[in-house]
C-alpha cells in the first residue's frame, strides 16, 4: 500500500522534512524572485534520483511514475513568500527583513516535496502504476497569480486531475477542511477616476461636485449590487481607498476610488464587469462628472469538483476518522482556481493551529504554524494517491 509506505517514510524522515521547511521559512523569497527556493527544491529532488523540470523563470515540476492513458495525478504547491516583517521570534525566523512566509507556502512546499521524495523511494522498491506530477508554482501572491504562466508552460498537459492544500490557522492540527463547490471567491480590483471642472464650495451649482460623486458611488453601488445579484452568491464590494481634494473650501477637479469585488459564483464573476460599468454610469449620470472605470479581473473562485472532493474526504478519513470538517467558504482569492478551469480537482484546508494559545491569522507577521501539520499533509496526499489508484483499478 502506497499510503502505508508514505506514512512510514515520513516517520523515518521526519527530522529531515522539518529541516526542509525551516530552511525555506528562514530564506523566504517573494513572487517571481524565488530563485534560491527553486534551486533548493531542485537539489533535494535530484538527491532522491528525480529529474525536475524548471520553468522559464522560477518554479519547477517533477514527474514520477509512468505515463498512462488515464493521465497523471497532479499536486500543486505554491513557493512564494510575502512582503511582511516576521515577529514570531522563532529560532528559524526569516533572515530577510520585510519578507516572510506568512501564508503557509513553506508548509505547502514541504508537503509536496515530502510526497515527491517518498514516492521516489517507493518507486525504487515497488512498481508505481500511476503517473504523478508535483508542481512547485511561483508567484501565487500576485495578480493574477503565477498559475496562468505555469499552465501556459505545459504543467497540465497529460494531467487527469489536481489537488492542493492550504494552511488554515483557525483549524486545529490534524483536522482537514473539505468543501465541495466554491471554497474561495473570485477577487477583482476596481478603480474609478472622476473628473470635473472644479470650483468653490460656495458655488457648487456652477461646478460638478467630484466629492459628492465619489460619495454616491461609495454608498449606492454596493446597495444596487445587492438588488441585482443573488445575495446567496457571497458577492461583496468593499472600497479600501478614496482620494480627492486639498482644501475644505475648494471643489476638486479629480477624485479616485479603489476597492475589491468578490463573489463565490463563477457565473456572476463572468458577468460582473459589464454590470459594474452599467451601474456606475447610472449613478454618475445626474452629477455631470466625467469618469473612467478600470475593472481588473483577478482570479475566479476555486470550485472544488464533487468527485475529487469526495476522494479527498475519503483519503482524510483513512488517516483519522475524525479528521474531516466542513470548510467555510472564504472571500479570499486563490489562483489554484485557474487549474480547476482546465481539469477537475480539489483544495483542502490543512489545520495548523496547535490547539493552545491564540489563533493567529494568515498574512500576519505573528503567524506560527504547528509543524505537525506537515506530516498530516504528506499522509493526506499519499492517501489520495492510493484512493485514486484504487478507484481506477475498480473502473478497469
UniProtKB/TrEMBL annotation:
Residues engaged in binding Mn(2+): 103, 105, 141, 166, 363
Keywords recorded for this protein, A-Z: Manganese, Metal-binding
Cofactor: Mn(2+)
SUPFAM superfamilies: Bacterial exopeptidase dimerisation domain, Zn-dependent exopeptidases
GO MF annotation: an example: metal ion binding
Note describing how the cofactor binds: The Mn(2+) ion enhances activity.
Peptidase M20 dimerisation domain: residues covered: 190-284
Identification of the protein by name: M20 family metallopeptidase
Record organism: Corynebacterium accolens
Amino acid at each position: 500500500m502506497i499510503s502505508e509506505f508514505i506514512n512510514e517514510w515520513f516517520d523515518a524522515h521526519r527530522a529531515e522534512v522539518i529541516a526542509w521547511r525551516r530552511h525555506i521559512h528562514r530564506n523566504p523569497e517573494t513572487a517571481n524572485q524565488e530563485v534560491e527556493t527553486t534551486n533548493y527544491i531542485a537539489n533535494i529532488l535530484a538527491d532522491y534520483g528525480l529529474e525536475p523540470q524548471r520553468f522559464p523563470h522560477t518554479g519547477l515540476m517533477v514527474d514520477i511514475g509512468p505515463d498512462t492513458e488515464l493521465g497523471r495525478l497532479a499536486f500543486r504547491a505554491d513557493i512564494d513568500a510575502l512582503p511582511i516583517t516576521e515577529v514570531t521570534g522563532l529560532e528559524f525566523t526569516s533572515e530577510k527583513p520585510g519578507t516572510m512566509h506568512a501564508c503557509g507556502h513553506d508548509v505547502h512546499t514541504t508537503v509536496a516535496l515530502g510526497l515527491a521524495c517518498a514516492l521516489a523511494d517507493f518507486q525504487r522498491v515497488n512498481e508505481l502504476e500511476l503517473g504523478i506530477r508535483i508542481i512547485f508554482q511561483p508567484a501565487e501572491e500576485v495578480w493574477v497569480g503565477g498559475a496562468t504562466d505555469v499552465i501556459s508552460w505545459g504543467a497540465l498537459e497529460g494531467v487527469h486531475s489536481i489537488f492542493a492544500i492550504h494552511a488554515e490557522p483557525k483549524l486545529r492540527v490534524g483536522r482537514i477542511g473539505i468543501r465541495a463547490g466554491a471554497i474561495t471567491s473570485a477577487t477583482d480590483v476596481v478603480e474609478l477616476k472622476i473628473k470635473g471642472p472644479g470650483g468653490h464650495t460656495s458655488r457648487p451649482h456652477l461646478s460638478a461636485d467630484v466629492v459628492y460623486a465619489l460619495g454616491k458611488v461609495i454608498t449606492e453601488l454596493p446597495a444596487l449590487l445587492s438588488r441585482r445579484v443573488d445575495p446567496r452568491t457571497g458577492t461583496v464590494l468593499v472600497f479600501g481607498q478614496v482620494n480627492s481634494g486639498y482644501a475644505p473650501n475648494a471643489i476638486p477637479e479629480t477624485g479616485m476610488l479603489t476597492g475589491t469585488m468578490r463573489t463565490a459564483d463563477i457565473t456572476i464573476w463572468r458577468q460582473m464587469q459589464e454590470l459594474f460599468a452599467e451601474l456606475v454610469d447610472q449613478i454618475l449620470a445626474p452629477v455631470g462628472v466625467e469618469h473612467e472605470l478600470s475593472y481588473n479581473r483577478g482570479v475566479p473562485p476555486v470550485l472544488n469538483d464533487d468527485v475529487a472532493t469526495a476522494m479527498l474526504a475519503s483519503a482524510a478519513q483513512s488517516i483519522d476518522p475524525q479528521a474531516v470538517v466542513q470548510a467555510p467558504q472564504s472571500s479570499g482569492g486563490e489562483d489554484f482556481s485557474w487549474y480547476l478551469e482546465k481539469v477537475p480537482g480539489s483544495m483542502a484546508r490543512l489545520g495548523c493551529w496547535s490547539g493552545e494559545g491564540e489563533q493567529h491569522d494568515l498574512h500576519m507577521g505573528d503567524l506560527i504554524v504547528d509543524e505537525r501539520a506537515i506530516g498530516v499533509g504528506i499522509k493526506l496526499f499519499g492517501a489520495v494517491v492510493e484512493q485514486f489508484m484504487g478507484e481506477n483499478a475498480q473502473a478497469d
